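Before we proceed, please read the two lines closing this message. Tell me what the token row says about the fold.
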Amino acid sequence: MITERINQDERFETLSFSYHAVTVVYRARVSLQIKACDKGDSVGKSLEETTIPQTVWPAAYPASEKLIDDSSRIFGGRKIKVLEIGSGTGLFGLTAAALGHKVVVTDTNEVSLALLAMHPQVAPRRLRWGNDDDAAAILEEFDGPFDAIIGCDVFYFSASLRAGMKTVSRLLRPGGSFLLASAVRSDEIEDEIERIPETFSAEFVVTTKEDIQCRGGPYPGQVHTKNQFRHVLWMELQRR
């Protein structure tokens, strides 16, 4: 039912992101207009009250470009098993799939999961950060920990960062890579993200940390402007 509602909603469009020889087709919300819905309409409530995972957030574009540009270095020329946390519309994960990797995309939001289920090249699953049962189910279904975990614009608060890093640690194999792209919006979250190497030093070592710029664009369906964030921080961490 939710997929049908999305397909009938003019605020959602099928978009195409192209960079170099890679093209990714995805579906996302392109308007932040809110509509009234009936009190008992649970699907309508999800569509109107949880718009964050329905749109493509700023870091997804430069992060996808970075993944394409540096794929040989990042993945060592191998096709590997990848999990994306906080997938939303899934652009980052779909880019990894377009590069030939086996990708599991995850979220908790039912609209996001419906959007992700429209793409047969990825496997959408529900994953609540810090929830051991969700992590265990994914490990069992996909034959153990992942070679790489990726995330774009996923950490906004200290509590979510701690829960997210706990989940990454649980699902990433020793020696595996966590690729994190974050559009920095405040001093607090910038400090939290910058201190990830120190805070989680017992489990991770940083191999790369840099600011990245948008190399392509203008981007399809972009509803969040560059003025809403300071810069995009790219970080690669290796699981000890």
User: Anything to note?
Assistant: The domain at 2-239 is CATH 3.40.50.150 (Rossmann fold).
